Amino acid sequence: MRRVPLLSVLATAALVAGCTSTPPAKPIASAEASAEASASPAVTVDYAAWSAGRSEPSADPLYPKRGTDKLDVLHYALDLTWDPKTKNLTGTATLQVRPTADAKQLSLDFMPYELDSVTVDEAPVTATVTDEKLTFPTTLTADKPVTMVVKYHGEPKTTPMPSHRSDTEPLGLTVTKDGGLWTMQEPFGAFTWYPANDQPSDEALYDIAVTVPEGWSAIAGGTPAGQDGSTFKYRSTDPVATYLTTLAVGKYTKVTAKGPHDLPLTYWYRPGTDDDVVASLKKSPDYVKFLEERFGPYPFPSGGIVMVDSASGMETQQMITMGGKHGKWDKDAQSGFEEDLLHEYAHQWFGDSVTPTTWKDLWLNEGWATYAQFLWEQKVYNLTDAQLETFFRARDAELRKKLGPPGSPLAANFAESNVYICPAAMLQQLHEKLGDKAFFALGTAWVQKQKNTQQDRATFIAFVKKQTGKDYSKLINTWLDSPTTPA
């Protein structure tokens, strides 16, 4: 998740705590398109090829204007071209969509780019973009998939982040001073570069191709799928939530490596800007090994990191996005960077492989990733369980008083520290009761048995009971809902 100042400890120190409406765009339609909703012509497509992208979308209670539970995107094919001189992004987005209910129109989240054409099953339709929603009439039947193609161009724009964090930045596709691109988009913002059902419960498969000028590189999430001239290709065969996609364009240096079990790893950094963190990036095999020993095999076919011009970091799937905006790296900052990087790697298990159904359960991502980070710091700095306990209780009390309990996050306070520290403190309590063997068996089973699924508080509580044979619902609910630190 986007980096928050969680914890930065030295070997000799104790633990310390350490999104706007837009005017309507002109409708775009071919001369053959009718202004009335009409049935699409019969087009034969084998949608079984994208069955792994099937989800059961849920309306999000925190950000109900983003995404919809009326459709399930199975697959996104994005063909993008970036011109840094004109700052123009040209895109063709081909979506395979499964309607979850009968409907007379289709609506997706989308920034108001200039629309060039929109088709549904090869039939042109009249489409408009209003208030960051791409909408057009078409007859949809529940569980009968359709293919839509959106062609567009324009200059990318960001959207505000609903948070008061110290590292808060605008969300979505960001243009750098030198004409590069980067993006972070939690809880939303994917719609700033492609039409999307921009909510966590709708995961989909991806094929991404990005064409850039000669000498430039384009980096995206998923597994590298080859390079054709200056077109870089990536494919995600595991489903991805929109907030976990990434895109970066710039003049990068590429480093390849192998992790445990010959896991392919790729690090992308900007020479002269990120040189001081390259050594930390190359420690990735150690981070993966540490996490595999506790939570089972790394869940995807490849991994990597791309450095960008941000003050934050993000667990984007298979290609972690790390901000390098920290000035000169001293020893303490370097340690903090590595702790954050371990945290983002932990999210590949907790959040990426197993994703929250709605943003109300962000604690389910951040609690586990934060606790994994603390376990790493405990090992590196030889910290005792008592020190960890002291830190958790003091910081937990401060955060509940300021931000409330982690199980009821506020929409205006997205991803602030209570959804990190407080659920991590709950997991420590569970760890103490279960012991090492049973606790890590629980964590391993949670991610390995539910790979590529969306989960929530109720399913977590039920899973803990089934896995351990004991009912810990009172402990979990108390730590998630209490206004003060539980006794």
UniProtKB/TrEMBL annotation:
<keyword id="KW-0862">Zinc</keyword>
<dbReference type="InterPro" id="IPR027268">
    <property type="entry name" value="Peptidase_M4/M1_CTD_sf"/>
</dbReference>
<dbReference type="GO" id="GO:0016285">
    <property type="term" value="F:alanyl aminopeptidase activity"/>
</dbReference>
<dbReference type="GO" id="GO:0008270">
    <property type="term" value="F:zinc ion binding"/>
</dbReference>
<dbReference type="InterPro" id="IPR014782">
    <property type="entry name" value="Peptidase_M1_dom"/>
</dbReference>
<dbReference type="GO" id="GO:0006508">
    <property type="term" value="P:proteolysis"/>
</dbReference>
<feature type="domain" description="Aminopeptidase N-like N-terminal">
    <location>
        <begin position="74"/>
        <end position="244"/>
    </location>
</feature>
<keyword id="KW-0479">Metal-binding</keyword>
<comment type="similarity">
    <text>Belongs to the peptidase M1 family.</text>
</comment>
<dbReference type="Pfam" id="PF17900">
    <property type="entry name" value="Peptidase_M1_N"/>
</dbReference>
<dbReference type="Pfam" id="PF01433">
    <property type="entry name" value="Peptidase_M1"/>
</dbReference>
<dbReference type="InterPro" id="IPR050344">
    <property type="entry name" value="Peptidase_M1_aminopeptidases"/>
</dbReference>
<keyword id="KW-0645">Protease</keyword>
<dbReference type="InterPro" id="IPR001930">
    <property type="entry name" value="Peptidase_M1"/>
</dbReference>
<feature type="signal peptide">
    <location>
        <begin position="1"/>
        <end position="25"/>
    </location>
</feature>
<dbReference type="InterPro" id="IPR045357">
    <property type="entry name" value="Aminopeptidase_N-like_N"/>
</dbReference>
<keyword id="KW-0732">Signal</keyword>
<dbReference type="InterPro" id="IPR042097">
    <property type="entry name" value="Aminopeptidase_N-like_N_sf"/>
</dbReference>
<dbReference type="GO" id="GO:0008237">
    <property type="term" value="F:metallopeptidase activity"/>
</dbReference>
<protein>
    <recommendedName>
        <fullName>Aminopeptidase N</fullName>
        <ecNumber>3.4.11.2</ecNumber>
    </recommendedName>
</protein>
<keyword id="KW-0482">Metalloprotease</keyword>
<keyword id="KW-0378">Hydrolase</keyword>
<feature type="domain" description="Peptidase M1 membrane alanine aminopeptidase">
    <location>
        <begin position="281"/>
        <end position="479"/>
    </location>
</feature>
